Amino acid sequence: MFADELAGNSSRKRAEENKARRLRLKAQQQRKATSEKNVSSTPVLVADEAVPLAEPSSIKPCLSSLSTEHTTSAVAKNVSSTPAAPKTITSSAQLSAVEKAEQQRQIRAETTKKVQASIVIQTFYRRYNCNVDLRKHHVELLSKRTQDISTIREMLLQTKNIRYVPPPATATAMVRQLLFLTTRVIYDNKTKMRVRVKRIDSFRHLDLLASLVNNVLLPGMSSVDEKVNPMLSWLATQEGRTRLQHLLRVVMVAISSKKTNGNVLDSLLHFLQSVLGLSKDTSAPKQVQDYCCSLLFPNNLPFYDSSPSDDPPYAFENSDLAMISIVRYFLLFISAGPDPIPPDAMNARESCIPEASREQGGELFLIVLHAVNRAPMSNRRGLQSQMVTMLMTLPLFTWKVSSAALNVLIHTNDASTRTPMVELIESFMEHRSNDLSQGYVNAVLTTQDLVLTRCPATPAQCLLANVVQLGRICPTTSGIDTDLFDFKSTAILFSMISTLVEAIPVGTFTARESCVEWIDDGHGVHKPVVLSPVVIEQCKALLVDSHVRRMFTIAIDTEILKTNEVLQKKDEKDLKLEDEMMKEGATSAAALAAREARIDRSKSFWNSSKWARKLTKGVANLLVKDGDAGAKETIFTDKMSTSGLKNISSESRRYAEGSHTKYTRDLLFCLTRTYAIVIARWGGGGKNDIVQRKQLDRAKGEQDVATTSVEPCVISLLNTLCFGTSLLKVLWAITQSDSQTVAELHSVIDPDKGRVPIRMLQIKPAISSDSRCDGWTLLFMFVSLLGHVLIVTDDVELYDMDKPLPIHQIRRCIQLLKKLLYRACCLDDLSVAQNSTFFGLALITASSKAMKDLYDRSSRRPLCTPKLWIVSDLMESEIRSCKRHGDFSSLLNLPVLRICPFLVSFKRRLKLFECIITTSRIEIQGVNDVNPFNTNPLKKGIPVRITRGRILEDGLATMNNLGSNMRQRIVVNYYNEAGVRETGVDAGGLFKEFWTDLCAIAFDPNYALFRVTDGAGDCMYPNPSSAAAHGSDHITLFEFLGRILGKALFEGITIHPRFAHFFLSFLRGDYNYLHMLPDLSTVDPQLYNNLMFLKTYDGDARDLCLSFTVTTDDFGGTKEIPLVPKGDSLEVTNANKLRYIGLVAKYYVVDRVKEQSEAFTRGLWEVIDRSWLRIFNEPELQVLISGASDGKLDVEDMKANTRYVGGFTGLDRTVARFWNVVARFDSKQQADLLRFVTSCERPPPLGFGSMNPPFTIQRVGILRDGDKLPTASTCFNILKLPTYSSEKVLRDRLLLAIQSGAGFELA
Questions:
Q1: How confident is the model at residue 69 (pLDDT cuts 50, 70, 90)?
Q2: pLDDT band (50, 70, 90) for residue 960
Q3: Residue among 976, 1057, 968 nearest 1020 (CA)
Q4: Superkingdom of the source (predicted)?
Q5: Are 493 and 477 in contact (CB under 8 A)?
Q6: Least CB-packed of 769, 1183, 1217, 1238 within 10 Å?
């Protein structure tokens, strides 16, 4: 009855008002018609005088209430009613009757227009006033009714304890009134109609809405009697459903307004929770809940873009009412202002978001979260995935919602063992698994409402930042609380992180101050956008040292993984290799290289290792025979760990014992995958294709996927993983003990099993239930860590302390990486290089770096026998197929010789070098051949006059300015001390004699150009005091000495000097500065020991009273040199002592001989191309310079490659006596014999088989033993041996000849 009365009064009053308005309009029209008849002929602005216009502030809302068409026409009429210029009225005497009539018609027409315009303005004004009055009346009426209902409810509750529920008709009428006040109809082109919610900015309207909800709607929904629930009756008709939809739209607009707060906000949130079934005390019927959920949570979510108007996009009837999108719009464009990322976010931090907005955003997010969690399972996964895509991709999400909302998101509830955050992530990855597995991460996360120009952060960046921030504060994933830690949840979290790390812009983890992303403007023009530093800072929290160390500490348990047992186990092959190394004893690397040059290898590459054969078969029985025990999920046991770096097993067990889930390797795999991607993308190897010597191409419009140089964050990450965890040992143990990993590694190294080239390998996304890593991912992480840890591992730790791995495991690693590099450089098809991935290129780069470092180590102190490095028959066919110098030189550009030349046997590389210089020498100098068909005869050459007592001086004066012409033939003319020319003709022998003598003088330490090392076998290096001995000419002398060495190599002359290891590195042109300390031990052992004492000193380094200076002693004069600016005042402390040690080593090994070394290499490289030398390591280069002999001649090799002429044969009695004599010679006598015949004291590096011309013995018949001495033709390596009567006579006469030191005369 009360509702009928209310409805009747309202209808009657509206009818009376309409009737009165019609009467007024009719009377007004009659008055206007009368006034038009009495208009005078003088032009008057009737509208301005007749109608008093309202104030501008009143006219503006009046005009805004009109449609667009009406407003436009009104303005046009008003403008046209004003004359452009006043017309001149002439006197009536000058005008004819027709002209006067025309003038009057114009005046009447203008007056009519003005009158019509004034009528329109008056109509607008009246309509606006009526609208305002009507709305004021309804606001007052609705306020009075809601107050009356509130009073009735309070009275009944106090007097009779009855909860009054308004009838459904009353609720319907009042809701209609509310919708009338908050909505209006706009006609679009007179054809389409849409309803828009009026902007609710009046506190009175908000109070009305809250009062209506509290006193009218909520009581009906909370009643047990469904008949009094107005919403149930609304669902029965289309009009009612539309009414409910409009009501929800009004509530959503109000609830997402920044001006809605306090009790009003609480009431609206309560209403929303009730209609969604989330309220405990007030809940709508199931039918209402389902209908409201279908409206607020549709399957396809819209993207609400920000608009310049005050009305949100979802206020229009033709837009979807999706609550997830509305919350996204609020957090993007309302809570923190119109910018998704506030301009002051970097400085103001969390305070850039008002606290009230955070609380409001948190409440809205919680409603969405709870509603989604209560959705049916068929829809829940999709809605949870939409929450990740729409809400967790928002920039600064953790700042824009309240702490209470975050606590709900990261804490578990009674119904689930996983946090809502983990459930959202898991649902997203399962729901979008197909797209994620194909790498379409950015396509999945791309939104239409945000572009980089508006929000300077990609969705992948924002999602990664939010997930990292949430993971670090979540008790089950942060690792801070051992009782709450959950292995599986953390594995899911890092599976998501690894997927995102691969999709974020490469500038995210760079050290640049600003990260720039280039975007396409749609017209093919790319413009730069500076990405948000705040979001980048949040992403970098993933790489914080303490967080990384804590995660891997939890994930690694060496006891369960049986790491130490695997690493200590040796098979038959390991024992055999150890026996071979024991037989070598203290043999130096140079001696091994010399021996390698004299023998050939023919053993099959694929059968070179028993452990490699196990890899080939895919069997992992090195540890256990009954499968992979480490793969089983088990609970930690309390055993002591024997890890060499850090006992982290006990810490891992402590986490597992306190956590409510069992230990699983999945977390270790997910962590490894995540940080392997970081190292691959930002470690400098993911973009550089070292095989083809170019950078990874990217398509037009695409962004870079990797950096060209290593970033500081990767160095910090590697430091943490190498020296704060035992990850390196664990990964290597898994690669041997896990059968699936072994099989996957086999597919990497064997092209018959793995069809995908190494350069095209990708990291498998962790989107399935199996979150384990690929074998190549584990291998990449291992080789990256190995290459990094070898930087600071000294020889004592490597060879004697089994750090980072036992020696037999290092040998296994060499075998595996050898096969990987062999496939990458020699077997894989390079035609698919355009499809290379950053991970494949990074794997090749990391493997080559680790192998090169191990090979450099082995060049100083052998890790294994030389055969372990090489691949049988590699490069054999390529060398044989070459004929000319260009063909041989082109082989140096092959990837295997540029990246891993150690895979090719040293003998084969020596052969290639010999072919290169021989063919080059023939092209430049010609051939000394009497063959009439010779098209390249011996060229004239450059004559050089040499006095025997002034070999160095004459050589410097005549040849130092030749430069690259040193490759030409040089003809030596010897003069004795009396100035008389010797009669010998130089066909090559005189030059070799001169060059041998020149080298002996130039490299004599007494000449003060070179100094001998104190700690390594009298090896030579440039004298730091050469300037004091030779003045400014010492640089010229070093350049000349470099040319001397280059000419010796070019002519195939072996010389005696043995150079220091570090100086040989300078000659190759790629000195490894990481080896300065080992090199210092050869230069100054005492200084090295002092520095090692300082390194391991446990006390305060200040007690030693050291500063950043060194003191030099040049010929008795001391000088103090600062290592850094003002080093004399910088004290050495425990904090900077490692820097001091490095600077001292650098000074003694590099800096003080840098000038001399650079001059020497300049001269050397003028004659010998640098690329020719880089295929050798330091001991091999020494063999190239000094030959493979270690002092004693290989008589058997010499005998086997000797040619006999003049009547001699190998069975001749005199020949047999000669070989018996030579075999009994000591080292010096053998060297004198070789020099007597060939002008060189040492045989060629490849042995006598490579000597050209070959060593020859010519028969000289004599009658008496005293007739002749043995003579030689050094140009042709011929020994002219008389037929002596006995072996004793032959020995005596041979020694007399070779030790007499006679010059060259005609034989």
A1: very low
A2: confident
A3: 1057
A4: Eukaryota
A5: yes
A6: 769
Calpha distance 54→36 (Å, rounded): 24
Pairwise CA distance, residues 612 & 604, whole Å? 12
- List the structure tokens of 649: 């097993």
1275 carries an active-site annotation: yes
CA distance 1026 to 1010: 8
Relative orientation angle of helices 572-584 and 807-822, to the nearest 10 degrees: 100
Helix (H) or strand (E) holding 756, with range, is none
- Structure token digits, residue 1052: 């195939």
The secondary element (H helix, E strand) that includes residue 1149 is: helix 1137-1149
Residue with tokens 């599976």, as numbered in its chain:
495
Highest mean pLDDT, choosing among 329-333, 436-440, 988-992, 1030-1034: 329-333
Between 34-43, 502-511, 700-709, 1171-1180, the lowest mean confidence (pLDDT) is in 34-43
Residue with more model confidence, 94 or 401: 401
Question: How far is 944 from 966, CA to CA, in rounded Å?
Answer: 12
What is the C-alpha separation between 230 and 176, in angstroms, rounded? 12
How many Å from the N-terminal Cα to the C-terminal Cα in the chain? 146
Tell me the backbone φ, ψ of residue 1110, rounded to 5 degrees: -130, 155
Q: Residue 663 and residue 671: Cα distance in Å, rounded?
A: 14
Per residue in 1029-1066, pLDDT (tens digit) is 888 888 988 998 898 889 888 888 887 788 888 899 99
Cis omega before residue 943 (within 30°)?
Answer: no
How many other C-beta atoms can be found within 10 angstroms of the C-beta atom of residue 1171? Answer: 15
State yes or no: pLDDT of 355 exceeds 70: yes
Question: Is the distance from CB of 989 to CB of 963 less than 8 angstroms?
Answer: no
CA distance 263 to 245: 23
* Three-state SS letters, 111-175: HHHHHHHHHHHHHHHHHHHHHHHHHHHHHHHHHHHHHHHHHHHHHHHHHCCCCCCCCHHHHHHHH
Catalytic residue among 455, 670, 864, 1275: 1275
Cβ pair 183, 195 in contact under 8 A: yes
Name beta bridge partners: 489.
Answer: none
Write out the two tokens for 18.
């309409």
Around 1237, how many Cα atoms within 13 Å sit in the side-chain half-sphere? 26
Mean predicted confidence (pLDDT) in 202-214: 80
Question: Amino acid identity of 1062?
Answer: F
439 burial type by CB count under 10 A (0-12 exposed, 13-18 middle, 19+ buried): middle
CA dist 330 and 324 (Å) reads 10
How many CB atoms neighbour CB 732 within 10 A?
26
* Cβ contact 967:1165 at 8 Å: no
**1168/1185 Cα distance (integer angstroms):** 12
Closest to 968 measured CA to CA, from 1033, 921, 934:
921
Strand ranges for 151-266 from DSSP E? 183-188, 192-197
Q: Say if strands 688-689 and 694-695 run parallel, antiparallel, or are unpaired.
A: antiparallel
Give me the residues paired with residue 1011 across strands.
Answer: 1021
Q: Are strands 1278-1282 and 1256-1260 parallel, antiparallel or unpaired?
A: parallel
Alpha-carbon dihedral of residues 1072, 1076, 1078, 1082, nearest 10 degrees?
A: 110
What are the phi and psi torsion angles at 1102 (to 5°)? -65, -25
For the chain, give the mean pLDDT.
81
State percent of the chain over pLDDT 70: 82
pLDDT score of 331 more than 90: yes
pLDDT of 8 higher than 60 = no
Structure-token pair, residue 779: 């291998």
Q: Dihedral, CA atoms, 876, 878, 882, 887, nearest 10 degrees?
A: -130
Q: Is the pLDDT score of 1217 beyond 50?
A: yes
Tokens linked to 885: 């110098």
Which 3 state secondary structure label does DSSP give 1037?
A: helix
